[in-house]
Each structure stands twice: as structure tokens, then as C-alpha cells.
Specification:
- The chain is mainly alpha-helical and about 80 residues long.
- It has a domain of about 55 residues.
- About 55% of the residues lie in helices and about 0% in strands.
- Helix 1 runs antiparallel to helix 2.
- The longest helix is centred in the first third of the chain and has 24 residues.
């Protein structure tokens, strides 16, 4: 079965979901007390945010302007 771009997007989504689970586990198991200046913990929080943003980009619909629909609010023109 040939790979399509959807196959690769699904693989990326699955990898990000696994990464999110790993980071959540690391944050959950991080020893307390957590100091505000704890660089390793702050790094985990930053990585979690990057993963969430990447997942959001994969799930977001993308508007591609065309001459018939130059902006998102123009609607869909049919002939």
C-alpha cells in the first residue's frame, strides 16, 4: 500500500500524542517541591506547550485564498 500524505500526517499525529503522554508522565512524576526557577521542569512545560501547538496545527483547517474566495468570510462560490 503506497504512503499518502495523510499516512504521514497520521504518523506525525500519533508520534505527537505519544510525546504528549511521555511529557505528561515526566511532569506528573517530577519530584516536589518544584521551585519556580527549576530549569528542567520549566523545560518540560515548554516542551508540552510545543507539542500541544504542533497538534493544534495538524488539526486546524487551513484557508487557501483563490481568486473566487480571496478571504475566509467570502463563502464558497458554486457554478
Amino acid at each position: 500500500m503506497p504512503h499518502t500524505f495523510e499516512t504521514h500526517l497520521d504518523a506525525a499525529r500519533d508520534a505527537l500524542l505519544r510525546a504528549r503522554a511521555c511529557v505528561r508522565e515526566e511532569i506528573r512524576d517530577y519530584p516536589s517541591p518544584i521551585a519556580g526557577c527549576d530549569a528542567q521542569f520549566n523545560h518540560l512545560l515548554a516542551q508540552r506547550q510545543r507539542i500541544l501547538e504542533a497538534l493544534g496545527f495538524l488539526e486546524a483547517s487551513v484557508f487557501v485564498p483563490t481568486p473566487r474566495s480571496p478571504t475566509e468570510d467570502c463563502g464558497v462560490e458554486s457554478r
